[in-house]
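Revision sheet: structure tokens.
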Amino acid sequence: MSPFLTVAITATLALYALAMALGLLRLMRGPSAQDRVLALDFLFIVAILVMLVLAIRYENGMYFEGAVLIAMLGCVSSLALAKFLLRGELIE
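Predicted:
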């Protein structure tokens, strides 16, 4: 792996860590439930991106499968939270 790619991946992971910290701050301090749901979706997206960068870094395809699993979990949880916020219940 080239030194430029190593530096770029390290910088990318550091910036993703900063983005996750800011997302966690919004998740904890969000003034409304909708803000917290959006922060959770943001954290899922950043986690997917981290997995993809790690797949490039370690040249391992298993990280891609992990990213797909995180995406599926994020989609289901977003739907469940949206339904809960809309109706106040999950099971009818």
